[in-house]
Amino acid sequence: MNPWTQELWRLLGVLLLALGIGLFAGSVAWALVAGLALYLVWQGWRLHRLHAWLSHNPRHEPPELGGLWGEFAYQVSRLARQERKRKKKLAKVLGRFYDSLAAMPDAVVSLDADYNIEWFNQAAGRLLGLKKIDRNRRVTNLVRDPRLSECLASDDTSNRSCALTSPVDDRITLHVRLVPFGKNQHLLLARDVSRLQQLERVRRDFVANVSHELRTPLTVLGGYLETLNGLPASDPRIAPELRPTLKRMEAQTRRMQALVTDLLQ
Known about the structure:
The chain is an alpha+beta fold and 265 residues long. It has helices at 3-25, 28-56, 67-103, 122-128, 146-153, 194-230, 243-264, and strands spanning 107-111, 117-120, 161-165, 173-181, 185-192.
């Protein structure tokens, strides 16, 4: 039965009972007033139980109130259960998210609108030297590098990145990038690029050494071929059938010299 209908039937029953008693006692008006007063006292008692449940035990099952207040308590309890389930699910998602960030090899630092540290993973402690007591402190007060300050102050929000030396180990070079998210919040990402820089130096040195080693013999070979191809066609020292081959050799030598020059630039 609809709780409103149930409540109206109860009120009607109280009034009919009070009317019967009033007719029997010869005082209908006072009987109706007394009946309504008793009905209001009963409603007040139910409301008191509802208030006590909401104030002290909202996680427990609602009291058996019946009628309109019982339906209200049931709906409140149902919404509270749904909200608790939603919060638990959200907490699990956030927990997995933070666990994944904590497992990343790159430093991840969450910053508020004023670039104060809200959260950071273990890699940030290893690469940037951050500690738990550093939360709610401005990141530039902890990582004192002018390049980081310039990166934070840059107006180009699409490409706010810089390279800086780790405050923990000056042998470590970090590539730092600032990524906006949420409402005026930022993620500071720092990656150790020391190994990449070392490999790039090795590559450049290797290319430079190989190119220099090739340039001298190619220059000598190109000089000899140019001299031979410059001899007159009547010169008996060069067989006529060898001249096309010598020209092709000279062209390929020049091509190799151009490639070496490009590698050195």
